[in-house]
Amino acid sequence: MPLARFPKRFLWGASIAAHQVEGGNHNQWSVWELEHAKSLAAQAKYQYGDLENWDDIKKEALDPANYISGRATDHYERYVHDIATAKKLNMSALRFSIEWSRLEPQEGRWDSAAIDHYKRYVAELKRQGIEPILTLMHFTLPVWFAEKGGFEQRGNVKYFVRFAEKVLNELGRDITYIITINEPEVYAFESYYQGHWPPGQQSKRALISVLSNLALAHNKAAKMIHGINRRYKVSIAKNSNYFYAGDNAVLSIRSAGVMQYMQDDYFLRKVTKTCDFLGVNFYFSNRVYGYRIHNPNERISDVGWDMSPDDLEHVLERLHRKYKLPIIVTENGCADASDEKRQWWLTRTILALQRALAEGVDVRGYLHWSLLDNFEWDKGKWPRFGLVEVDYDTLERRIRPSGKKYGAFLKRIRE
Ligand code: FCB
After folding, report:
1. pLDDT digits (tens, 9 = 90+) for 116-126
2. pTM of this prediction?
Protein backbone atom coordinates (compact mmCIF):
# COMPACT_ATOMS: atom_id res chain seq x y z
CA MET A 1 0.00 0.00 0.00
CA PRO A 2 1.21 3.52 -0.74
CA LEU A 3 3.08 5.36 1.93
CA ALA A 4 3.02 9.08 1.75
CA ARG A 5 2.41 12.12 3.79
CA PHE A 6 -0.93 12.51 5.45
CA PRO A 7 -1.57 15.20 8.06
CA LYS A 8 -0.45 14.07 11.49
CA ARG A 9 -3.88 14.27 13.07
CA PHE A 10 -5.62 12.54 10.17
CA LEU A 11 -8.27 10.18 11.57
CA TRP A 12 -7.83 6.63 10.35
CA GLY A 13 -10.31 3.92 11.15
CA ALA A 14 -13.56 2.22 10.31
CA SER A 15 -17.34 2.58 10.63
CA ILE A 16 -20.14 0.46 11.99
CA ALA A 17 -23.80 1.10 12.79
CA ALA A 18 -25.76 -0.13 15.80
CA HIS A 19 -28.48 -2.13 14.13
CA GLN A 20 -26.08 -3.82 11.74
CA VAL A 21 -23.80 -5.23 14.42
CA GLU A 22 -25.24 -5.01 17.93
CA GLY A 23 -27.86 -7.74 17.91
CA GLY A 24 -30.98 -7.88 20.07
CA ASN A 25 -32.50 -4.63 18.85
CA HIS A 26 -36.18 -3.88 18.88
CA ASN A 27 -36.96 -1.03 16.52
CA GLN A 28 -38.94 -0.27 13.35
CA TRP A 29 -36.40 -2.31 11.32
CA SER A 30 -36.50 -5.46 13.45
CA VAL A 31 -40.31 -5.42 13.29
CA TRP A 32 -40.18 -5.04 9.51
CA GLU A 33 -37.61 -7.86 9.18
CA LEU A 34 -39.95 -10.32 10.84
CA GLU A 35 -42.77 -9.30 8.53
CA HIS A 36 -40.70 -9.43 5.34
CA ALA A 37 -38.08 -12.15 5.75
CA LYS A 38 -40.10 -14.75 3.85
CA SER A 39 -40.95 -12.54 0.91
CA LEU A 40 -37.37 -11.24 0.65
CA ALA A 41 -36.11 -14.83 0.50
CA ALA A 42 -38.73 -15.71 -2.10
CA GLN A 43 -37.69 -12.76 -4.29
CA ALA A 44 -33.94 -13.34 -3.89
CA LYS A 45 -33.50 -15.17 -7.18
CA TYR A 46 -35.03 -12.29 -9.12
CA GLN A 47 -33.06 -9.71 -7.14
CA TYR A 48 -29.66 -11.35 -7.15
CA GLY A 49 -29.87 -14.24 -9.63
CA ASP A 50 -27.92 -12.25 -12.25
CA LEU A 51 -24.94 -11.64 -9.99
CA GLU A 52 -21.77 -13.52 -10.92
CA ASN A 53 -21.55 -14.84 -7.38
CA TRP A 54 -25.14 -16.10 -7.25
CA ASP A 55 -23.99 -19.69 -6.71
CA ASP A 56 -21.96 -18.64 -3.70
CA ILE A 57 -24.70 -16.59 -2.08
CA LYS A 58 -27.85 -18.47 -3.02
CA LYS A 59 -27.97 -20.71 0.02
CA GLU A 60 -28.01 -17.71 2.33
CA ALA A 61 -30.04 -15.45 0.06
CA LEU A 62 -32.84 -18.00 -0.30
CA ASP A 63 -33.06 -18.54 3.46
CA PRO A 64 -35.54 -16.30 5.33
CA ALA A 65 -33.24 -16.37 8.39
CA ASN A 66 -30.72 -14.32 6.37
CA TYR A 67 -33.10 -11.35 6.49
CA ILE A 68 -33.45 -11.23 10.26
CA SER A 69 -30.76 -9.28 12.11
CA GLY A 70 -31.35 -11.27 15.33
CA ARG A 71 -28.18 -11.34 17.37
CA ALA A 72 -26.22 -9.95 14.36
CA THR A 73 -22.54 -9.97 15.40
CA ASP A 74 -23.41 -9.60 19.10
CA HIS A 75 -21.32 -6.44 19.17
CA TYR A 76 -23.45 -5.10 22.02
CA GLU A 77 -21.85 -7.74 24.26
CA ARG A 78 -18.52 -8.08 22.46
CA TYR A 79 -17.66 -4.43 21.93
CA VAL A 80 -14.58 -4.57 24.19
CA HIS A 81 -13.12 -7.29 22.00
CA ASP A 82 -14.05 -5.46 18.79
CA ILE A 83 -12.59 -2.17 20.00
CA ALA A 84 -9.42 -4.04 20.91
CA THR A 85 -9.32 -5.30 17.32
CA ALA A 86 -9.64 -1.74 16.00
CA LYS A 87 -6.73 -0.84 18.25
CA LYS A 88 -4.74 -3.83 17.07
CA LEU A 89 -5.28 -2.60 13.52
CA ASN A 90 -3.78 0.74 14.60
CA MET A 91 -6.96 2.73 14.04
CA SER A 92 -7.28 6.17 15.58
CA ALA A 93 -11.04 6.58 15.08
CA LEU A 94 -14.21 4.49 15.08
CA ARG A 95 -17.57 5.64 13.84
CA PHE A 96 -20.51 3.94 15.57
CA SER A 97 -24.14 4.79 16.21
CA ILE A 98 -26.30 5.08 19.29
CA GLU A 99 -29.45 3.02 19.02
CA TRP A 100 -32.26 5.45 19.86
CA SER A 101 -34.72 2.58 20.52
CA ARG A 102 -32.47 1.33 23.32
CA LEU A 103 -32.12 4.72 24.98
CA GLU A 104 -35.78 5.64 24.71
CA PRO A 105 -37.70 2.37 24.28
CA GLN A 106 -40.94 4.14 25.13
CA GLU A 107 -41.72 7.77 24.52
CA GLY A 108 -40.09 9.91 27.19
CA ARG A 109 -38.76 6.92 29.19
CA TRP A 110 -34.98 6.72 29.23
CA ASP A 111 -33.30 3.41 29.87
CA SER A 112 -30.44 3.97 32.29
CA ALA A 113 -28.85 0.56 31.58
CA ALA A 114 -28.58 1.45 27.88
CA ILE A 115 -27.15 4.86 28.71
CA ASP A 116 -24.56 3.23 30.97
CA HIS A 117 -23.70 0.79 28.21
CA TYR A 118 -22.88 3.56 25.75
CA LYS A 119 -20.93 5.42 28.46
CA ARG A 120 -18.79 2.33 28.94
CA TYR A 121 -18.50 2.01 25.17
CA VAL A 122 -17.18 5.54 24.71
CA ALA A 123 -14.91 5.16 27.75
CA GLU A 124 -13.44 2.01 26.19
CA LEU A 125 -12.72 3.83 22.93
CA LYS A 126 -11.02 6.61 24.85
CA ARG A 127 -9.03 4.12 26.90
CA GLN A 128 -7.71 2.63 23.66
CA GLY A 129 -6.89 6.06 22.25
CA ILE A 130 -9.58 5.79 19.57
CA GLU A 131 -11.58 8.89 18.66
CA PRO A 132 -15.32 8.18 18.89
CA ILE A 133 -17.35 9.47 15.94
CA LEU A 134 -20.93 9.23 17.08
CA THR A 135 -23.93 8.87 14.78
CA LEU A 136 -27.38 9.68 16.17
CA MET A 137 -29.61 8.19 13.48
CA HIS A 138 -28.41 5.40 11.21
CA PHE A 139 -31.68 4.29 9.56
CA THR A 140 -33.32 2.88 12.72
CA LEU A 141 -36.07 4.39 14.87
CA PRO A 142 -37.90 3.45 18.06
CA VAL A 143 -41.18 1.70 17.29
CA TRP A 144 -43.21 4.38 19.12
CA PHE A 145 -41.61 7.11 16.99
CA ALA A 146 -42.27 5.21 13.76
CA GLU A 147 -45.89 4.66 14.86
CA LYS A 148 -46.32 8.41 15.30
CA GLY A 149 -45.37 8.76 11.63
CA GLY A 150 -41.59 9.06 12.04
CA PHE A 151 -39.94 11.79 10.02
CA GLU A 152 -42.95 12.12 7.78
CA GLN A 153 -44.47 14.35 10.43
CA ARG A 154 -42.81 17.70 10.93
CA GLY A 155 -44.10 17.81 14.49
CA ASN A 156 -42.01 14.73 15.31
CA VAL A 157 -38.69 16.46 14.72
CA LYS A 158 -38.71 17.63 18.34
CA TYR A 159 -38.43 14.04 19.58
CA PHE A 160 -35.24 13.55 17.62
CA VAL A 161 -33.79 16.78 18.96
CA ARG A 162 -34.71 15.73 22.51
CA PHE A 163 -32.94 12.40 21.96
CA ALA A 164 -29.88 14.21 20.60
CA GLU A 165 -29.86 16.46 23.66
CA LYS A 166 -30.04 13.46 25.97
CA VAL A 167 -27.10 11.83 24.20
CA LEU A 168 -25.08 15.03 24.44
CA ASN A 169 -25.85 15.47 28.12
CA GLU A 170 -24.93 11.90 28.94
CA LEU A 171 -22.00 11.28 26.59
CA GLY A 172 -20.97 14.70 25.37
CA ARG A 173 -17.96 15.05 27.63
CA ASP A 174 -15.90 12.55 25.68
CA ILE A 175 -17.19 13.29 22.20
CA THR A 176 -16.13 15.82 19.58
CA TYR A 177 -17.51 14.48 16.29
CA ILE A 178 -21.23 13.98 15.83
CA ILE A 179 -23.06 12.77 12.73
CA THR A 180 -26.73 13.68 13.18
CA ILE A 181 -28.21 11.60 10.35
CA ASN A 182 -26.69 8.95 8.13
CA GLU A 183 -27.44 9.27 4.41
CA PRO A 184 -30.73 11.16 4.76
CA GLU A 185 -31.59 10.83 1.07
CA VAL A 186 -30.87 7.11 0.88
CA TYR A 187 -33.08 6.61 3.91
CA ALA A 188 -35.90 8.77 2.52
CA PHE A 189 -35.66 7.31 -0.97
CA GLU A 190 -35.58 3.64 0.03
CA SER A 191 -38.20 3.98 2.76
CA TYR A 192 -40.68 6.42 1.20
CA TYR A 193 -40.19 6.29 -2.56
CA GLN A 194 -38.85 2.87 -3.54
CA GLY A 195 -40.62 1.22 -0.65
CA HIS A 196 -37.78 -1.25 -0.11
CA TRP A 197 -37.31 -0.29 3.53
CA PRO A 198 -39.70 0.35 6.39
CA PRO A 199 -42.32 1.77 6.30
CA GLY A 200 -42.36 0.61 2.66
CA GLN A 201 -44.14 3.63 1.19
CA GLN A 202 -44.05 4.63 -2.45
CA SER A 203 -45.01 8.25 -2.49
CA LYS A 204 -43.31 11.26 -3.99
CA ARG A 205 -45.07 13.52 -1.55
CA ALA A 206 -43.87 11.51 1.43
CA LEU A 207 -40.33 11.50 0.01
CA ILE A 208 -40.26 15.26 -0.28
CA SER A 209 -41.66 15.89 3.19
CA VAL A 210 -39.31 13.35 4.80
CA LEU A 211 -36.33 15.03 3.12
CA SER A 212 -37.42 18.42 4.32
CA ASN A 213 -38.06 17.15 7.86
CA LEU A 214 -34.69 15.39 7.99
CA ALA A 215 -32.99 18.64 7.00
CA LEU A 216 -34.90 20.41 9.74
CA ALA A 217 -34.00 17.66 12.23
CA HIS A 218 -30.32 18.03 11.39
CA ASN A 219 -30.39 21.83 11.57
CA LYS A 220 -32.24 21.91 14.89
CA ALA A 221 -30.05 19.23 16.44
CA ALA A 222 -26.88 20.94 15.19
CA LYS A 223 -27.97 24.30 16.63
CA MET A 224 -28.85 22.67 19.93
CA ILE A 225 -25.44 20.93 20.02
CA HIS A 226 -23.57 24.13 19.16
CA GLY A 227 -25.62 25.87 21.85
CA ILE A 228 -24.20 23.44 24.42
CA ASN A 229 -20.67 23.99 23.23
CA ARG A 230 -19.10 25.40 20.08
CA ARG A 231 -16.30 22.83 20.27
CA TYR A 232 -18.53 20.08 18.87
CA LYS A 233 -18.03 19.20 15.22
CA VAL A 234 -21.29 18.29 13.57
CA SER A 235 -22.26 16.96 10.15
CA ILE A 236 -24.53 14.54 8.36
CA ALA A 237 -22.99 11.53 6.57
CA LYS A 238 -23.63 12.35 2.94
CA ASN A 239 -23.93 9.59 0.37
CA SER A 240 -21.97 10.89 -2.56
CA ASN A 241 -21.37 8.63 -5.50
CA TYR A 242 -19.79 9.87 -8.68
CA PHE A 243 -21.66 10.55 -11.94
CA TYR A 244 -19.77 11.00 -15.19
CA ALA A 245 -20.63 11.17 -18.88
CA GLY A 246 -19.77 8.03 -20.85
CA ASP A 247 -19.33 9.97 -24.12
CA ASN A 248 -18.97 13.50 -25.41
CA ALA A 249 -22.63 13.98 -26.20
CA VAL A 250 -23.99 17.18 -24.71
CA LEU A 251 -26.95 15.26 -23.33
CA SER A 252 -24.73 12.79 -21.46
CA ILE A 253 -22.59 15.56 -20.02
CA ARG A 254 -25.62 17.57 -18.96
CA SER A 255 -27.50 14.71 -17.41
CA ALA A 256 -24.45 13.48 -15.47
CA GLY A 257 -24.20 17.01 -14.07
CA VAL A 258 -27.88 17.12 -13.18
CA MET A 259 -27.72 13.72 -11.50
CA GLN A 260 -24.68 14.77 -9.46
CA TYR A 261 -26.45 17.95 -8.46
CA MET A 262 -29.64 16.17 -7.45
CA GLN A 263 -27.70 13.63 -5.45
CA ASP A 264 -25.36 16.04 -3.70
CA ASP A 265 -26.65 19.54 -3.62
CA TYR A 266 -30.41 19.29 -3.27
CA PHE A 267 -30.00 18.22 0.33
CA LEU A 268 -26.60 19.65 1.21
CA ARG A 269 -27.77 23.16 0.40
CA LYS A 270 -30.30 22.86 3.19
CA VAL A 271 -27.84 21.75 5.86
CA THR A 272 -24.24 22.83 5.26
CA LYS A 273 -24.70 26.13 7.12
CA THR A 274 -24.94 24.18 10.35
CA CYS A 275 -22.14 21.71 9.49
CA ASP A 276 -18.60 22.05 10.83
CA PHE A 277 -17.33 19.45 8.41
CA LEU A 278 -18.75 17.15 5.75
CA GLY A 279 -19.06 13.43 6.35
CA VAL A 280 -18.90 11.69 2.95
CA ASN A 281 -19.86 8.09 2.16
CA PHE A 282 -18.53 6.90 -1.20
CA TYR A 283 -19.18 3.47 -2.71
CA PHE A 284 -19.56 3.58 -6.49
CA SER A 285 -19.66 5.57 -9.70
CA ASN A 286 -22.33 5.89 -12.36
CA ARG A 287 -21.50 6.25 -16.04
CA VAL A 288 -24.20 8.20 -17.83
CA TYR A 289 -25.22 7.91 -21.49
CA GLY A 290 -28.05 10.23 -22.39
CA TYR A 291 -30.57 9.79 -19.60
CA ARG A 292 -29.40 6.32 -18.66
CA ILE A 293 -26.82 4.82 -16.38
CA HIS A 294 -24.74 2.12 -17.97
CA ASN A 295 -21.67 1.13 -15.99
CA PRO A 296 -18.58 -0.52 -17.46
CA ASN A 297 -18.73 -3.13 -14.68
CA GLU A 298 -15.15 -4.15 -15.28
CA ARG A 299 -14.97 -4.83 -11.59
CA ILE A 300 -18.07 -5.31 -9.52
CA SER A 301 -18.48 -6.06 -5.87
CA ASP A 302 -20.47 -8.97 -4.44
CA VAL A 303 -23.59 -6.78 -4.29
CA GLY A 304 -23.19 -5.76 -7.95
CA TRP A 305 -21.83 -2.26 -7.38
CA ASP A 306 -19.41 -0.87 -9.96
CA MET A 307 -16.02 -0.57 -8.28
CA SER A 308 -14.24 2.67 -9.18
CA PRO A 309 -12.35 3.64 -6.03
CA ASP A 310 -10.21 6.21 -7.91
CA ASP A 311 -13.26 8.41 -8.35
CA LEU A 312 -13.28 9.26 -4.65
CA GLU A 313 -10.82 11.97 -5.63
CA HIS A 314 -13.39 13.68 -7.89
CA VAL A 315 -16.14 13.45 -5.29
CA LEU A 316 -13.94 15.03 -2.63
CA GLU A 317 -12.64 17.69 -4.96
CA ARG A 318 -16.17 18.70 -6.03
CA LEU A 319 -17.60 18.84 -2.52
CA HIS A 320 -14.63 20.79 -1.24
CA ARG A 321 -14.87 23.29 -4.08
CA LYS A 322 -18.60 23.81 -3.54
CA TYR A 323 -18.85 23.82 0.23
CA LYS A 324 -15.37 24.73 1.50
CA LEU A 325 -15.75 22.50 4.53
CA PRO A 326 -13.24 20.03 5.92
CA ILE A 327 -14.18 16.49 4.91
CA ILE A 328 -14.10 13.16 6.71
CA VAL A 329 -14.77 10.07 4.61
CA THR A 330 -17.30 8.51 6.96
CA GLU A 331 -17.89 5.33 4.90
CA ASN A 332 -16.16 3.63 1.99
CA GLY A 333 -15.64 -0.01 1.21
CA CYS A 334 -16.81 -3.02 -0.77
CA ALA A 335 -18.69 -6.28 -0.33
CA ASP A 336 -16.05 -8.93 -0.98
CA ALA A 337 -16.58 -12.24 0.79
CA SER A 338 -13.49 -13.83 -0.79
CA ASP A 339 -11.35 -10.82 0.20
CA GLU A 340 -9.76 -10.87 -3.25
CA LYS A 341 -10.52 -7.23 -4.09
CA ARG A 342 -10.56 -5.36 -0.79
CA GLN A 343 -6.84 -4.78 -0.60
CA TRP A 344 -6.80 -3.39 -4.13
CA TRP A 345 -9.78 -1.20 -3.20
CA LEU A 346 -7.97 0.16 -0.13
CA THR A 347 -4.79 0.88 -2.05
CA ARG A 348 -6.62 2.74 -4.82
CA THR A 349 -8.66 4.63 -2.25
CA ILE A 350 -5.63 5.76 -0.28
CA LEU A 351 -4.02 6.96 -3.51
CA ALA A 352 -7.22 8.88 -4.33
CA LEU A 353 -7.12 10.48 -0.87
CA GLN A 354 -3.53 11.49 -1.47
CA ARG A 355 -4.33 13.08 -4.80
CA ALA A 356 -7.23 14.98 -3.24
CA LEU A 357 -4.95 16.25 -0.47
CA ALA A 358 -2.33 17.27 -3.02
CA GLU A 359 -4.99 19.29 -4.85
CA GLY A 360 -5.70 21.16 -1.63
CA VAL A 361 -8.84 19.33 -0.50
CA ASP A 362 -9.05 19.54 3.28
CA VAL A 363 -9.57 15.83 4.08
CA ARG A 364 -9.31 15.06 7.77
CA GLY A 365 -10.07 11.37 8.01
CA TYR A 366 -10.91 8.05 6.40
CA LEU A 367 -13.24 5.46 7.92
CA HIS A 368 -13.55 2.16 6.11
CA TRP A 369 -16.91 0.41 5.92
CA SER A 370 -16.75 -1.75 7.81
CA LEU A 371 -14.81 -2.93 10.81
CA LEU A 372 -16.91 -6.09 10.95
CA ASP A 373 -19.13 -8.09 8.65
CA ASN A 374 -22.64 -6.93 9.39
CA PHE A 375 -26.34 -7.07 8.63
CA GLU A 376 -26.75 -5.27 5.32
CA TRP A 377 -30.36 -4.01 5.65
CA ASP A 378 -32.79 -5.55 3.13
CA LYS A 379 -30.02 -7.78 1.73
CA GLY A 380 -29.36 -9.40 5.08
CA LYS A 381 -26.19 -11.14 6.15
CA TRP A 382 -24.63 -12.49 2.96
CA PRO A 383 -22.85 -9.29 1.83
CA ARG A 384 -19.47 -9.23 3.54
CA PHE A 385 -18.09 -5.73 4.06
CA GLY A 386 -15.81 -6.44 7.04
CA LEU A 387 -12.10 -5.98 7.51
CA VAL A 388 -12.92 -8.62 10.08
CA GLU A 389 -14.89 -11.71 9.08
CA VAL A 390 -17.65 -12.83 11.42
CA ASP A 391 -18.93 -16.39 11.57
CA TYR A 392 -22.63 -15.88 12.28
CA ASP A 393 -22.99 -19.34 13.83
CA THR A 394 -20.16 -19.18 16.33
CA LEU A 395 -19.74 -15.36 16.36
CA GLU A 396 -16.01 -15.90 16.05
CA ARG A 397 -14.05 -13.09 14.47
CA ARG A 398 -11.12 -13.45 12.08
CA ILE A 399 -9.17 -10.53 10.68
CA ARG A 400 -9.16 -10.81 6.89
CA PRO A 401 -5.81 -10.55 5.06
CA SER A 402 -6.88 -7.12 3.71
CA GLY A 403 -7.63 -6.05 7.30
CA LYS A 404 -4.12 -7.06 8.33
CA LYS A 405 -2.67 -5.09 5.42
CA TYR A 406 -4.73 -2.03 6.35
CA GLY A 407 -3.50 -2.40 9.94
CA ALA A 408 0.12 -2.63 8.80
CA PHE A 409 -0.34 0.43 6.58
CA LEU A 410 -1.80 2.39 9.49
CA LYS A 411 1.10 1.40 11.71
CA ARG A 412 3.62 2.78 9.23
CA ILE A 413 1.68 5.90 8.35
CA ARG A 414 1.01 6.79 11.99
CA GLU A 415 4.55 6.28 13.22
C1 FCB B 1 -24.41 2.66 3.31
C2 FCB B 1 -24.98 2.57 4.71
C3 FCB B 1 -24.30 1.54 5.57
C4 FCB B 1 -24.00 0.27 4.80
C5 FCB B 1 -23.28 0.59 3.51
C6 FCB B 1 -22.90 -0.62 2.71
O7 FCB B 1 -25.36 3.20 2.46
O8 FCB B 1 -24.87 3.81 5.36
O9 FCB B 1 -25.11 1.30 6.69
O10 FCB B 1 -25.16 -0.43 4.61
O11 FCB B 1 -24.07 1.43 2.73
Report:
1. 999 999 999 99
2. 0.98
